[in-house]
Amino acid sequence: MHTLLADYLLQHLQETCGGTLPTRVFNCLRDAILEGVLVPNTRLPASRDLANELNVSRNTVLNAYEKLRAEGYIQAHTGRGTWVSETLPDHYIEVGSTPISISTAKIEPNFTLSVRAIGLLEHAAASPYQWGAFVPGVPDVTEFPHVEFNRIKSRLSRQPEISNLIYSNAGGCIELRQALADYLKIARSVNCETDQIIITEGIHQAVDLISRALCDLNDEVWIENPGYWGAKNILRINGLSITPIPVDAEGIIPKEKPQNTPRLIFVTPSHQYPLGSHLSLSRRRKLLDIAKKYNSWIIEDDYDSEFRFSGQPYPSLQGLEENTPVIYIGTFSKTIYPALRIGYMVVPKQLVHPLRTISAELYRGGHLLTQQALAEFIVEGHYAAHIRRMRLLYAKRHKYLIELIHRYLGEEFLHEYNHDAGLHLVLKLPEHANDVEICRLALSRSINVRPLSQYYSGTHTPIQQGLLLGFACVQEQDMTFTFSILRQCLIENGVHSNVPKINV
User: Fold this and answer.
1) Which residue, of 352, 381, 410, is where some domain finishes?
2) Residues 163 and 380: beta-carbon distance below 8 Å
3) Helix/strand/coil (H, E, C) string of 127-182?
4) Phi/psi of residue 244, each to 5°?
């Protein structure tokens, strides 16, 4: 049986004309290295094995290998074989193609992208940097009990049930939906039965499914301002009309007499993203009244509800009364880790069958073994124990970051809506500051913060300058030093405080 390299060489040897056979083998191997077929530190087959696969003499391969070694493309290590060099010859830079950075790539005018796709690219905000100080919204993935979770997965994988290896039209693994129904009733006061839960791959897929299934082109959607860019981008590419609604200390401020009635109302009532306010009871009731009056659907993104560091957790909007027009969505990205790609929806009973069917048609069901493992992880109590442990850890880091802000910047820099919850804080900046430029300078020094101004939409709401500082994945012993770098970036951009400089 041929290796992939032998198949590649046999194909290209037929296309290569001129020169002796060893030269042609050398050229094909060199091209494979230059084109990235053989990346640095790739082990090459033994000369005898490759000669047999190519049906050539061993000397032919040895000669090609020797020439490649002489020119610096490969290295031979006694007892370890032959490897593609980690550092290739200088002329590789001239011959090889230059990688294109996604962040700097420009779309050529003749690209056949849709208008909606171009609009999405103009608003793209997903960062390539997802770890370190002070990335907002990222949990400390090193603290998750991976050994326990993988033990469950390994056991289930040894003799997997057929139902977990094929497509699913049932809205996800039944065991996980049952475990979630039990958990959400207790932890979040959600009114639901197992059949009302649809498993998704996260919040983005849930919003995509809802907007496709319940909206037509140009339908109006209310979304908090400032609000989550990810939800806005999904609504935008699905052709909906986004109306930004301002928020204050009590959360979203619903319009009393809207000019256009909303089809969807997207809110983060437990911990408004990004400012951190909590939706008051009076605003919750007003939203429900508006939704009932105009036949609208409320999407409740229960963002960061698990991580409150003082007082009792706020119950869900969905569970405020019976038969609410609310679609409750959540995810395990913050409580376990983002790459798990498992989220969930609790949908009103009248929407269960259509949304489950549409979900199966659009996305097809998958990851059922992982879902079943997660169900056992929840039922056995590991999930609740992990939440309790992380709540204590994040509370310490939250408190520590607040102390740094107070001590080295001043209390006026802490946004007034910051409450004892979530995985990030908002650092309030003066009006003259440029939070985008501050973020760029900080990133050049390996500090990753997000500019608050880019979460705003429209021109009617005053845009605040600020920084989102994630603290969940930053240990206390590292926080002081990284905060000192951030403070220096503020000073260099004309943002000063009356407190002394940090000495680290």
Assistant:
1) 381
2) no
3) CCCCCCCECCCCCCHHHCCHHHHHHHHHHHHHCCCHHHCCCCCCCCCHHHHHHHHH
4) -75, 130
419 and 301 belong to one structural domain: no
Query: What residues does 197 pair with on adjacent strands?
Result: 346
**Nearest alpha-carbon partner for 344 in 210, 206, 178, 181:** 206
Q: Does position 183 have pLDDT exceeding 90, yes or no?
A: yes
User: Using one digit for the tens of pLDDT, what is the confidence trace for 250-285?
Assistant: 999 998 888 889 999 999 999 999 999 999 999 999
List the CATH number of the domain containing 33. 1.10.10.10
One DSSP character per residue, 282-323 reads: HHHHHHHHHHHHHT-EEEEE-TTTT-B-SSPPPPPSGGGSTT
Tell me which residue of 30, 31, 28 sits closest to 6, measured CA to CA: 28
Nearest CA among 141, 210, 159, 163 for reference residue 371: 163
Average pLDDT over residues 306-325: 86
Q: Are residues 377 and 390 in the same domain?
A: no
Digit-coded pLDDT (tens) for 198-210:
999 999 999 999 9
User: What does the block give as tokens for 124?
Assistant: 């793209």
For residue 69, give its domain range.
4-92
Q: Rg of the Cα trace of the chain?
A: 28
The structure tokens 């880019």 sit at 454
Any idea what DSSP says for residue 7?
Answer: H
Based on the fold, state whether residues 488 and 440 are members of the same structural domain: yes
Answer yes or no: is 438 within a domain: yes
* List of residues 6+ apart from 222 with CB closer than 8 A: 243, 245, 252, 254, 255, 262, 264, 265, 266
Contact 318, 291 (CB under 8 A): no
HSE-up (13 A, CA, CB side) for residue 315: 12
Instruction: Read off the tokens for 414.
Output: 């802490």
Query: Which of these, 379, 378, 372, 387, lies nearest to 154 by C-alpha position?
Result: 372
Q: Could you give the number of structural domains in the chain?
A: 3
Whether 412 and 352 map to the same domain: the answer is: no
Q: Give pTM, 2 decimals.
A: 0.77
Residue showing tokens 């959540």: 330
Of 472, 504, 438, residue with least CA distance to 134 = 472
Token pair belonging to 354? 């259509």
Query: How many residues in total does the chain contain?
Result: 504
Upper half-sphere CA count for residue 3 (Cβ side, 13 Å): 14
Pair 373, 389 in one domain: no
Q: Do 212 and 351 have their domain in common?
A: yes
Residues 191 and 329 in one domain: yes
| 429 and 306 inside one domain | no
- Give domain status of residue 485, yes or no: yes
